[in-house]
Amino acid sequence: MSSVSQSVGDAERQKNIFANCFWGKDDAGFEVLTTRLKQSKQTCEEVKNLFHERALIEEEYAKRLSKLSKIPVGKDEIGSLHDALETVRQELEATAKEHIGLSQKIRAELEQDLADFIAKQREKRKLQQNVVEASLRNKQTQVSFAQKAREKYESECLKLPGLFESKKTAVGKEMEKLNSKIEKTQLAAKAADQEYMQMVKIAADATQKWNEEWKLACEVSIQSIMNITGMYIMNITDEGWIRF
User: Fold this and answer.
1) At a CB cut-off of 8 Å and minimum separation 6, what does 111 contact?
2) How far is CA 25 from CA 7, 31, 36, 123, in A?
3) What is the pLDDT of residue 123?
4) Which of 13, 22, 48, 223 has a CA-to-CA distance to 97 between 20 and 30 Å?
5) Where does the pLDDT of residue 11 fall: very low under 50, low under 70, confident under 90, or very high at 90 and above?
6) How far is CA 13 from CA 5, 7, 20, in A?
7) What are the F-BAR domain coordinates in residue numbering (predicted)?
C-alpha cells in the first residue's frame, strides 16, 4: 500500500470514530452531545412513566373484573344454565388474576428495572460530565490567560516604534529619558513575551488534557446512548406486556 493510500485510509477511519464527530468552533460539540444525553434521559423517564400508567390501567381493570365476577347472576338457576353462568364467573375471575399479574410484572420487570437503569446511567453520566466540565473550564481559563498575555506583549511592543521615532528629534536630558524608557519597555516586552510563551504552554497542556478527556467522554456517551436504546428496544417489545 502506498503512503498516500494509507493516509487516505487512516483519514477515513478517523472520520468513522464516534469521538471525532464532536469537534468544532467554540467547543460546540460539547453542547450537542450533552443535549443528546439529556434527551435520552428524558425519553427514559417518559418510557418509565408509560410503564407506570400501563400497570395502573391493568390493576384498575383487574379490580373491576374481580368486582364484576362477584356480582350474583342467576343464583336461582339450576342445571346447564347454572353451570354456564358459573363458568362465566370463573372466567372473569381468572382474567382478573391474569391482569393483576401483568400489572405486577410490568412494575417489577419493566418499570423498576428501567428506574434502576436510569439511576445507574445518571450516576455514570454525572461523574463523567463533572470531569469533562472541569477540564473544559480549565482549558477555557488557560486559553483566556494566554490571550491576555499576548495582548500585554503586543501592547508593550507597540510602544517601541513611537519611542524610537521620538529619539530622532530628542536631545540632552530628553534623549536620556527616552533611552531609559526604551530600555524599560524592551525589558517589559521581553518579560511579557516570556510570560506569553509560558501561558501558551500551559494552555496547550490544558487543551491536550481536555481533548483526551473529551474523546473518552464521547466514547462513554455513545455507549450510554446505545445502552439506553437497547433498553428501549428490550422493554418496549417485551411480549409479556404487549400481548394483551
Assistant:
1) 48, 51, 52, 55
2) 25, 12, 18, 29
3) 80
4) 48
5) very low
6) 12, 10, 10
7) 15-244
